[in-house]
Amino acid sequence: MDKMKTAEAIRSGQTVLGIEFGSTRIKAVLVDTENAPIASGGHDWENHYEDNIWTYSMEEVWAGLKDCYGQLKEDVKSRYDVSLTTVGSIGFSGMMHGYLPFDENGEQLAPFRTWRNTITGQASEQLSEVFRFHIPQRWSIAHLYQAVLNGEEHVKDVRFLTTLAGYIHWKLTGEKVIGIGEAAGMFPIDSDAKDFDAGMLEQFDELVADRGFSWKIRELLPKVLVAGEQAGTLTEEGARLLDPSGELSAGIPLCPPEGDAGTGMAATNSVAVRTGNVSAGTSVFAMAVLEKALSRPYEEIDMVTTPTGDPVAMVHCNNCTSDLNAWVNLFKECLEAFGTKVDMNTLFGTLYNKALEGDPDCGGLLAYNYFSGEHITGFEEGRPLFVRRPDSKFQLSNFMRVHLFTSLGALKTGMDILTKEEHVQLDKMLGHGGLFKTKGVGQRVMAASIDTPVFVMETAGEGGAWGMALLASYMKNKEGDETLAEYLAQKVFHGEEGESISPDAKDTAGFEEFMVRYKAGLPIERAAVESLR
């Protein structure tokens, strides 16, 4: 779309706005009628560790939102010489899970407890046993029940419980609603009913019945909506919260607020059954859209949903590229010691490609990338570790290969449960994140690890704010009973799937050999954790 048409689309309110609250950055993306990003704004922020809680203050939330939106307005003005006064629709997203409780007057009862907190172990274990459904520590219901177990005074006064995205949406529209994908990080979802699981809601009420609370759990939770439904309109008060200048008009429709998992699915066109996406950077997680529910719960697998409510199995790992990056920086330091200056992109590309020359099984080398604990393999703490036998093939190619392999070792442990034990069928996985920046390398390793074709799109780097804008666009522009999967495929990605790499049989066999060594060597990692204090 040319500049004049874009300016007219902005002026006439045909654009769509997506805003996502990430862990370290709040980002806004404005898209045109073809769903292409045309302007953006951002605000950097960090959580705080206060009174043993990882948190953000609500003052920071609103200051960050206003700054982010203000930067977006400036970007629009500088690019198109148009003042942003309205848009066609808006969507808000945020880091999922956590705990934001409010009383009957809408007053916050406890500091925001983010997904990062691991203080709900007792609640997580007990709820998982009662529900016969894995409840991760970061889920909202685990935080609420832990507060019950702790005897926290505020619990009796809770009248509304939501997430960060749900909170923002509520304050801007007055609607206590939430998208189903985000809801799946609060309480288990019944994908057939497109709502919280009724049986488990009753089980929770029975569990706390002796506490004498005047509330039932369903009364505290927001209403669940699916992608495509309208979730309210921007109020006058909400418009001022977003744009204190008074230029933004009220009455703009909003789509259901979603979590970063759902926006990631939208941004990678991986909402259809038998597809999935993997985000690989500092941490790594993979999501697979299921044809049917798993046969039983697994501690290693989190069950969430797509923005339309289809069941999704998620494997989340704390560690991915941090140790790999540390080794690349060491090579950079070595080169600089010899007076050689090297571009980091060139260095990463050279070393990553060197890994493709290594032996399929990494020549007998072994490494663990555990900067922090890794729940899938049972570690509360981590120690980055490299070890080899005297007869291992200690070459640069194998050294780089083993660090690429181990960056996906914990993830493969979880994915093997899905593919080998549950026989989940995946036609393709969409890859995004730093691991895939060097063309063809991380993609090839990922394909080998899960024995599935891996696609990488240029647009995958646009991020969650763009994914949220796509969900808002779907609500505004869908035709008839057009599904989200159809809309994304035909109206956003136009049938393009990105560049694909299929698994190489030798790489896949080599990764399996490496994983035998990886599992057998876990006691070495345990000894490192216990010995290096």
From TrEMBL:
<keyword id="KW-0418">Kinase</keyword>
<feature type="domain" description="Carbohydrate kinase FGGY N-terminal">
    <location>
        <begin position="16"/>
        <end position="241"/>
    </location>
</feature>
<dbReference type="GO" id="GO:0005975">
    <property type="term" value="P:carbohydrate metabolic process"/>
</dbReference>
<dbReference type="GO" id="GO:0016301">
    <property type="term" value="F:kinase activity"/>
</dbReference>
<comment type="similarity">
    <text>Belongs to the FGGY kinase family.</text>
</comment>
<dbReference type="InterPro" id="IPR018485">
    <property type="entry name" value="FGGY_C"/>
</dbReference>
<feature type="domain" description="Carbohydrate kinase FGGY C-terminal">
    <location>
        <begin position="277"/>
        <end position="474"/>
    </location>
</feature>
<dbReference type="Pfam" id="PF02782">
    <property type="entry name" value="FGGY_C"/>
</dbReference>
<keyword id="KW-0808">Transferase</keyword>
<dbReference type="InterPro" id="IPR043129">
    <property type="entry name" value="ATPase_NBD"/>
</dbReference>
<dbReference type="InterPro" id="IPR050406">
    <property type="entry name" value="FGGY_Carb_Kinase"/>
</dbReference>
<dbReference type="Pfam" id="PF00370">
    <property type="entry name" value="FGGY_N"/>
</dbReference>
<protein>
    <submittedName>
        <fullName>ATPase</fullName>
    </submittedName>
</protein>
<dbReference type="InterPro" id="IPR018484">
    <property type="entry name" value="FGGY_N"/>
</dbReference>
